């Protein structure tokens, strides 16, 4: 059988590229998700996931993550976990629990500590500086504090036909303590069924939670739509519905993969993502909304990649926001 991986944002590239090579050799979909997401969580320059993620309004880092196995529908999730190096690994462990498989706040942190998951300070000097700058900016310009909510979400298919999805996020920058986004919520932030496919979301959790967009995308693939048609239909219809009923829609994007290794992506903003399959090497793509509820997709250029790298690695003393 074939294999594949798709993931939100450029930050997923190194993990997807590495784990797609493992999948090619017969590696496990679950392991590929945990290892690839750990790589994003561990990298300090990715400011919306794991170590170096952006703090809440009290300058505390509260992290959300989830793991779902598409063979048996096991789901594990954590929300508002603190001081824990790899929330995705905790979510994976929780997915094996018959009860108590979604833990929040101090309960999630306590579980991780007691189960021997590595504990560490997760806030970096860079994240603290961004928090200070954001606070100054909000006060000076009387702005809404909320900004930035880039979840890493990945779907994986292995050669045995097993499919797994995982997410990890520090959620909304400057969120209230205790705020939880879509990323640990089944159906909304992620969903997978190995007999059909999987999907995962990134964007403004408060709006993503108004729909069950990951579940809906999988359901439409189950009715025979191609991944691209399914996700276009779900994302653009929901975007229009939110605008009609509420007057606005936050930024959101979904990626999906079916159990034949075909993928799709739709977005209401410019968005980067990564995909790798048996026939397509790991690649970073850019997507944007196209005409008539379709999505325009292109391979990211060398200039785009260079500008991205310079942006995320700006020297601390030169940070302006
Ligand atoms: N999509 C991540 C969040 O809103 O928390």
From TrEMBL:
Name this polypeptide is given: N(4)-(Beta-N-acetylglucosaminyl)-L-asparaginase
Judging by the UniProt lineage, the source's domain of life is Bacteria
The protein's site described by Cleavage is found at 150-151
Query: Which residues does the record give as substrate binding sites?
Result: 179-182, 202-205
User: Residues in the active site?
Assistant: 151
Gene Ontology MF, one: hydrolase activity, acting on carbon-nitrogen (but not peptide) bonds, in linear amides
User: Mind giving the lineage of the organism this protein is from?
Assistant: Bacteria, Bacillati, Bacillota, Bacilli, Lactobacillales
Cellular component terms (Gene Ontology): cytoplasm
